[in-house]
Automatic annotation (TrEMBL):
Residues 427-436 have a biased composition (Pro residues). This is FAD-dependent oxidoreductase. InterPro entries: FAD-bd, FAD/NAD-bd_sf, Flavin-dep_Halogenase_NPB. Residues 410-436 are annotated as: Disordered. It comes from Salinicola acroporae.
Amino acid sequence: MSEADHEVIVIGAGPAGAAIAAQLAARGHRVLVVERSHFPRFSIGESLLPQCMSHLEEAGLLEAVQAAGYQPKNGAAFTRGGESTAIDFREKFTPGWGTTFQVERADFDHRLIEAARAKGAKVEFGATVTAFRADPDRPEVDVVDESGNASTLTARFVVDASGYGRVLARLEDLERDARQIPRTALFTHVEACPVEPSHDREKILIGVHPDDAGIWYWLIPFRDQRASVGVVGQTARIDAYGHSPETRWQALIDAEPRFRQLLEGARSTRPVGELRGYSADVTRLHGAGHVLLGNAGEFLDPVFSSGVTIALKSASLAAPLVDRQLAGETIDWQGQFEQPLRAGVETFRAFVDAWYDGRLQTIIFHADAPRDIKERISAILAGYAWDRRNPFATDSARHIDTLAAICESQAASRAPGPGTANARQPDPGPSPETER
């Protein structure tokens, strides 16, 4: 056979694509990244988790991130009905990074892919993949540029890091039920977001709607009094707040006292964006001559900012396997990539489900959590969902159930008694017909 056009073709130039392209190019492989957009371009997923830092360092991309001067982040603050609490990622069970950054993704993603290019990866923007033919030795992709010129490219391996584009999931008919209730996110950027003593800009702020615990808010501080602000909830509930994304976003902000206070006088710098039914999953993450990374395979929910962490973790797992396969080894992609990656994703899933059904909110807002329990939960929320020494990673649902029951019992023993109203209602979990 003639030599392939490229050893590796990476579809998508987001964090997963940049990370694996950088690692494989640094190993001497001929890598082409094809990206349908032009960078910089807007994206959400702006609050990183500390686990990301080790993966960026491994990919040789950390220096580019640290040079950007992003807003530091050391944890998450929570507000609900006048209650406030916080989790400090530096106080965690798992060793490793305890701090990270809040980033504007347009700049962050651009820096990552340019750093990958500096390591030798070739990048083509404005190129759309229209077809794919799987093959264990010579997979092919059809690409169309913005002028309408079509070409067929061969490779020895193809990586799908297309994020929400989900290129191979669509072309290979891999999509399946995501096991999440359809939800909608509304989001924008604001400026003149005030700095005040009670607002810790080194933490993402997560709020809970005062009358509906299934609707939550994020406020991600950036430098210079700017911030990303979003609202998430079941689609039908979000739609009830207005006839346009802007009116719904504003009505929901006005409904939460802490967010209304913080954003008084703040100005939106872009139209309110809307992402509906964002959760996704696939039947498999690998096949003949290809692998799916990050959101191109599975996306859960933005509540704990796990998207970029999962994307970088998938690149970290896949890069050495692609390198070894190109060297002629036979790789067990199921056992060495898919199973370990999905193990951490399932840990995040357990925490997402527990947030929406109220169990995790009960735990987080509990006043007297033991230090060792807080450190174990902090480790998961800091992104260390693959630490199998942490019982909240290996048997997440059972430990969350037990801890939530204890917290509820203790809270009930301190309750003021009959007649106290509680309007907050937990978000119901997936209906039985959506369970696998």
